[in-house]
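Hi there. Long-time user, first ticket. I'm pasting a complex I've been working with (about 536 residues overall). I'd like to know whether the download I got is complete or cut off, because the file seemed smaller than I expected. Thanks.
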Amino acid sequence: MSHDVIAKETGVAAPAKKPAVRPVPFRGGGFRHRPHGPVSLLVFIAVLVFWEIGCRYDVISNIALAPPSQAFGAIMDLVHTGMLWKHLSVSLYRLLAGWTLGTLLGIGFGILIGLFSLVRAGLMPLVSALFPIPKIALLPLFVVWFGIGEGSKVATILFGTFFPTVIATYSGIDSVDRNLIRMGQSFELTWLSIVRKIIIPGALPAILSGFRISAAIAIVLLVAAEMIGAQYGIGAYILTAGAEFAIDKLIAGVALLSVIGLAIAWLIGRAERYFLDWRT
Amino acid sequence: MELILENIGHDYAETEVLRDISFTVKRGEIVCIIGPSGCGKSTLLRFIGGLERPDTGRVLALGEPPAGSLNPLTYIFQDFALLPWRTVEGNVSLVLEDHGIKGRQARAIIDDVLARTKLADFSKALPRQLSGGMKQRVAIARALSVRPAVMLMDEPLSALDSQTRELLMDDLIELWMRERFSACYVTHNLAEAVRLGHKIVVLSRRPGKIIEVVEIDIPLNERPARIVELDNLQRQVWSIVREEARQADMELTHVA
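Hi, the file is complete. Here it is re-exported in full:
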């Protein structure tokens, strides 16, 4: 078969015949992602269904895992007793206060480190030394310093979000196109104008992607901070559930954390689209 | 206003990049600086506008800039240097804001320079929506808005394709016929140099020294019609730089 084709093409066997015309085969397919609308939803539902069935027919032991229906029931309990809002509001307050303060301070110090070499020389080693410390390890200290109430919890989240924001901000400033700064200087823009109109907008993409990291860290630290001296809060709820071995409640709490995380990611995505619409 | 360069020399670390450069940019004159890559021509332009300091020699300004000139020495960059987060008019207004020009006065200047660069319909566009040629026209509009005495152009057409380059060269000639600006025009493209230069300063390979200064007395607007003479001129300049360019190409890079 293939020999025939070659013979036809080269025209050796049948010189009188017209050369065969055929389309050039397409070879450029694959290796490209396309949107597959409902697939993610279907996978999510399938996982829940298998999980539910597995629990009902004892394939999954109910010591290891509670079925999603029970976890949903636990959430509904929270709704009915009005505790959902209580836990959520306390946790969201801690997240918001800690993250906002940590982020504002982080951007402030990041800008100072990014702009002034003296500040950079003084603070960079300190930031590098403190950044890798798990802030959870400092929680007992924070309790001593800021009290067992809200202070220590907000402080934990504040310190946890501060360092990644500092690093995101100054590396964003470092990555601003030097030619744009030189352009500003060549038109005799004032120092403040160059910072305000060129450097900070140029560093904004890096600052906003730093937000994603610091938000995830804030949620991790929220649960950790609510381990000590917290009566309410999603973290406290999960820890109580764990102590009582109430797996349905534990899963319900984790699902709530996941929802908070998704909501924050969505908000940051919106902020990026609003502030960075000039990007391609 | 005239610019006078006196014995400019410069070293980067161990490497000497420029040696004993002296020439003058007269009023209404376009001086093209050509030379092989790495001969320090862009560095020289940064000295001329005060963005860097030479090790030896100095750049002097003779006479006062014209009245109303906000930024006598104004650059046009190879990579356009537009703020991607500002619209076309925002990029022009950027260089006016610090001079306290806002509101209706700024509006008038912006409309005027955008009209002169044929960008009036694109004032609200973002840089990413524009072609390379249009981006460079925005940069030219921005430069015009501060009424420069001397334009310092660093390979302004090198990032553009050859057709856009032709069109923009025509635009530049048209603009010069009207405004008679002075300019220092750095390029490695001989065709641009003979089309736009009243004077071509030919630099050697590193360390850059002046090999020759070629004066061209054909008026700018007559040049497209006198293509044969221009072609001969270009060949003449090429014969000067050819050997330098060949040897520069064989050198290892020492300067980052």
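A couple of notes from our side: Strands of chain B lie at 2-12, 15-25, 30-34, 56-62, 73-76, 150-154, 182-186, 199-203, 210-215. Chain B has a mean pLDDT of 90.
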